[in-house]
Design goal:
This protein is α+β, with helices and mostly antiparallel strands. The protein contains 9 helices and 12 strands. Strands 1, 2, 3, 6, 9, 10, 11 and 12 form an 8-stranded mixed sheet that branches. Helix 1 crosses helix 3 and helix 3 runs antiparallel to helix 4.
């Protein structure tokens, strides 16, 4: 995983530290290692842990005379329902939970209203929140994987650096997409079939968005799923985006492998210009950012 990070992802993190929005998405068939790559295990750190290490290491080295603020959030999209994984009252098992809605704020960022954001000061605090969220994630046994992630999850890190009269701010989305799976190989479990249909639909909508972006189409159908809507500014906005494509070496999975590689070939053709997010006047930032910076 560290080799993958050094080969491609490190550039995204270094850009993130300079005020450029970044995103890392893991895409592929169920059981090919997406979740392992993103979160790691007891023997190997995943992408999230490595990114947190890089971020706080660089901040301590380069920003001794600057004030910075790091916040994280963690959301799940399961059967087109959004859950706040850092808020126990937003658990997918809580039928009385308030629906979380996706909005576009004044900075043209996609946000979720009332989403829990926690300020952290080091890598360890970030990992604690990661583990808290993973405990609430929806998992299930599938024909491909004994412990399969059945939801899309997005771990978000937001950064603000204040230097004299200028504020640089950026967002990093790290996305572990649920794996695709053919309905024809599923058992007769009705809940699992419905679940898989929703997963495949959202992945299909993501694929359509990528296709339209790579073809430079003017109309992009982000609103067709919660996943594409929330990731609108990550895959089609001011953002440096990397995809990790995981595939199976088995011949029986050739259709899924070709589909994943086709997705990757389209994604690599997307051309987006990125700019540094900066503001010379603190009053131009939204009220939540002002409050956080003044509290330091």
């Amino acid at each position: 995983i560290k080799d993958i990070y050094n080969f491609d992802l490190k550039e995204s993190i270094l850009s993130f530290l300079k005020g450029i929005n970044s995103a890392i998405l893991a895409y592929g068939q169920t059981g090919t290692g997406k979740t392992h790559t993103i979160k790691g295990n007891n023997k190997e750190e995943g992408v999230i842990q490595i990114c947190l290490e890089e971020i706080f290491s660089k901040l301590s080295e380069e920003n001794l005379n600057k004030k910075y603020n790091v916040r994280v959030s963690f959301v799940q999209i399961y059967n087109e329902v959004i859950s706040d994984l850092l808020n126990i009252n937003s658990s997918i098992n809580n039928n009385n939970k308030k629906t979380l809605e996706i909005k576009k704020n004044s900075n043209l960022e996609m946000v979720i209203e009332n989403l829990t954001e926690v300020q952290i000061s080091n890598k360890e605090e970030g990992i604690q929140l990661l583990n808290l969220g993973l405990e609430n994630r929806k998992n299930a046994i599938t024909d491909y994987n004994e412990f399969s992630s059945r939801s899309h999850v997005i771990f978000t890190i937001k950064l603000e650096i204040k230097n004299e009269n200028q504020i640089i701010y950026s967002k990093l989305n790290i996305v572990d997409l649920a794996g695709s799976e053919r309905l024809s190989i599923l058992s007769s479990n009705n809940d699992r079939i419905k679940e898989t249909q929703n997963i495949n639909k959202s992945l299909s909508e993501l694929s359509n968005v990528i296709l339209n972006l790579s073809s430079n189409n003017k109309f992009i159908s982000y609103r067709n799923s919660k996943l594409t809507r929330y990731l609108e500014d990550s895959i089609g906005g001011n953002c440096l985006t990397s995809f990790i494509i995981t595939i199976s070496p088995l011949l029986k999975d050739i259709k899924e492998t070709l589909s994943s590689l086709s997705f990757a070939s389209r994604a690599i053709n997307i051309q987006i210009k990125v700019t540094i997010n900066k503001c010379k006047n603190i009053e131009n930032l939204n009220s939540s950012k002002i409050k956080l910076l003044k509290n330091e």
